[in-house]
Write a structure and sequence with these properties.
Elements (H helix, E strand, L loop, with lengths): L2 H10 L5 H12 L20 H10 L2 H20 L19 H19 L1
Helix pairs in contact: 3-5
Function: Component of the ubiquinol-cytochrome c oxidoreductase, a multisubunit transmembrane complex that is part of the mitochondrial electron transport chain which drives oxidative phosphorylation.
Family: Belongs to the UQCRB/QCR7 family.
Subcellular location: Mitochondrion inner membrane
Length: 120
């Protein structure tokens, strides 16, 4: 997506719009913010997407990997204890941005490009 289009999409998000309110409501109705997880912490490695996810995780900075692992371990512990975090420690919708999906898109693009080069 071109830079002007990205800026237009970012500017189009109106916090008073019905769509924003529905997305925010749905976010908090899911279970993962109560456990302190971010949206992209729950991406599952399937047999098809496993190599892509592993490569994207390998490219993350060490601090981000450590934070992700901590969030997942804490969520597992809370889930086993059948508890949730206090409300002030929940993941905030406005601060939960993508950290893994840009890398996943990049890895997919590189794999497709490699496939094209190998087939030529």
């Amino acid at each position: 997506m071109a830079a002007p289009a990205r800026q237009a999409v970012k500017q189009a998000v109106d916090k008073n719009s019905l769509w924003y309110k529905v997305c925010r409501w749905y976010y908090y109705k899911s279970y993962f913010p109560e456990l302190g997880l971010r949206k992209e912490d729950i991406i599952v490695e399937t047999p098809v997407t496993g190599p892509i996810i592993k490569e994207a995780l390998r490219r993350l900075p060490k601090e981000e990997i450590d934070a992700r692992n901590f969030r997942i371990l804490r969520a597992n512990q809370l889930s086993m204890m059948k508890r949730v975090l206090p409300r002030d420690q929940w993941t905030v919708y406005e601060e939960d941005g993508p950290y893994l999906s840009p890398l996943i898109k990049e890895v997919k693009r590189e794999m497709e490009e490699r496939k094209l080069w190998d087939s030529a």
